[in-house]
């Protein structure tokens, strides 16, 4: 028996030094489930319709248009070589990276995009959105 009361609440704090020397502090907690880390066996590469990928984080800056244009040319010539990473939570797909590749596919009018899919729970999704 543990000498302290146990609860199902998980709290985590992280301190990191910013590039400008500042010390931002981040913290999050989960009331019922801890985030899970996907093993390689839980990841798969799939073609997913572009319009089914939710991009929940607002961009603070626009994409580098020269990079998007170069990616568009490359995708037209040889296809997408590196899949974007998405989380699958309860049948919905959420993208947090691959912004330039995603925009290039949108601008080319491509119906699908190659994705590295990782199954996750809602707690993991919440952590990615902080």
UniProtKB/TrEMBL annotation:
It is an enzyme of class 1 (oxidoreductase). InterPro entries: ParB/Sulfiredoxin_sf (IPR036086), ParB_N (IPR003115), Sulfiredoxin (IPR016692). Residues 46-124 form the ParB-like N-terminal domain. Its EC number is 1.8.98.2. One of its GO terms (molecular function) is ATP binding. GO terms for cellular component: cytoplasm. It holds the Pfam family ParB_N. GO terms for biological process: cellular response to oxidative stress. It catalyses: S-hydroxy-S-oxy-L-cysteinyl-[peroxiredoxin] + [protein]-dithiol + ATP = S-hydroxy-L-cysteinyl-[peroxiredoxin] + [protein]-disulfide + ADP + phosphate. Gene3D superfamilies: Conserved hypothetical protein from pyrococcus furiosus pfu- 392566-001, ParB domain (3.90.1530.10). It comes from the Eukaryota. Keywords: Antioxidant, ATP-binding, Disulfide bond, Nucleotide-binding, Oxidoreductase. PANTHER family: PTHR21348, SULFIREDOXIN-1. Belongs to the sulfiredoxin family. This is sulfiredoxin. It comes from [Myrmecia] bisecta.
